[in-house]
Amino acid sequence: MLRVLVDVALASQVSVELKEAIVELGAGVDSWDEESGDLYGVPDALITCASRVETVVESYAHTPRLPQIVAVASIPSAAVARRVLLQGAAGLVDEAAHPKAIALAVLSAACGWTVVPGSHGASMAQRLAEPPRELEPDERSLLELVARHTVEQAGREMGLSRRQAQRRFQALCHDLGLDNHLHAAVATSAWGLLHLEGA
Question: Do both 112 and 144 map to the same domain?
């Protein structure tokens, strides 16, 4: 049986209706918050607010895998959807959607699908696959190294001082619309810039 957690940060009424809809579709469901954590291992999926995706990702940072995270936002734009997916979510749905529609999106994500509002699908497929602009070779190298190491270690490999590496990384994140180290690592992977060892 698929196991789903619903973030307590969602409005209580939404949580109750969502839980009922998820159970009706045959999955197990419970509540989640980062303070109590998940005492029974990693769930198949977790639903949260768009603004809390990064918190959820960080909460599961030390587990073997992330749950499939679906975020809800009010009338999500393509830009919001893109940012949420790059932060590590498996999907984004409109909070005004019927609870059963949200439940279906969550269970689809638990089965490995990426879920976005229908009107955004075509435009986002291209945008998610590549950075917002062409990257210089040293920028690509920095992103790839930072996805695997700390900024300081990445800078050392590139012959930069700690301060130079931090400044260059912060400027690059600002330019590419990346919020932090974690966001940069997820984006680097999504853009196909990570080369697997031995590949």
Answer: no
Written as one letter, the residue type at 17 is: E
Closest CA to 31 of 3, 53, 70, 60: 3
Find, among 40, 4, 49, the residue nearest to 23 by Cα.
4
SS3 33: coil
Dihedral sign computed on CA atoms, order 70, 12, 62, 81: positive
What pLDDT was estimated at residue 199?
A: 37
CA 28-32-37 angle, 5° bins:
115
Q: Please tell me the pTM assigned to this model.
A: 0.58
| Structural domain span for residue 109 | 3-128
> Is residue 18 domain-shared with residue 104, that is, in the same domain?
yes
Residue 196 has pLDDT above 60, yes or no: no
Q: Higher-confidence residue: 26 or 11?
A: 26
Same domain, 16 and 76: yes
